[in-house]
Design a protein that fits this description.
151 residues, two-stranded antiparallel sheet, 2 strands
């Protein structure tokens, strides 16, 4: 039974709840970004690249020619779908730029606190301490010279 109570304490920690909340929010944010990339930015890139669909780009390894990726896959030919890699890189760059701009805008909305001035430490200043040391050294020199004179 102690195992269950320990597990319950672990689950109810603030860190775990915050992590769970972050995962749920991250999933929701991912769907927004995916939609932005797929429904808004990718069509614009398609217009700029004259309708080129990178996911349809492939190389057949057995040397035969196929009219489409589907035909090559249906024939069970070994293919390298380099277009998927290109599309993944483009998607990564788009998502990275979007997240960068989002975080930059978020940072501007944060209220910046003015740092409070640090109070000077109480006590003697460095000059006062040096003067005290000098005075002590003078006293020691005077007392040592007086003891030598009496000898």
């Amino acid at each position: 039974m102690k195992l269950f109570s320990d597990f319950r304490k672990f689950i109810m920690k603030g860190d775990i709840v915050a992590l769970a909340t972050a995962v749920v929010m991250g999933a929701a944010f991912k769907s927004i970004i995916d939609s932005l990339v797929k429904d808004v930015i990718t069509p614009i890139i398609g217009v700029l690249t004259s309708g080129t669909d990178f996911t349809r780009k492939f190389i057949v390894l057995n040397g035969k020619s196929y009219p489409s990726l589907e035909a090559a896959q249906e024939a069970k030919a070994a293919v390298i779908t380099y277009g998927n890699l290109i599309q993944a890189i483009v998607n990564f760059l788009i998502i990275s730029i979007f997240i960068f701009l989002f975080l930059k805008a978020y940072e501007k909305t944060k209220i910046k606190e003015n740092p409070k001035p640090v109070a000077a430490p109480k006590g003697p200043t460095q000059e006062e301490l040096l003067i005290d040391i000098r005075n002590e050294l003078r006293k020691q020199n005077q007392s040592s010279s007086e003891t030598e004179e009496t000898k």
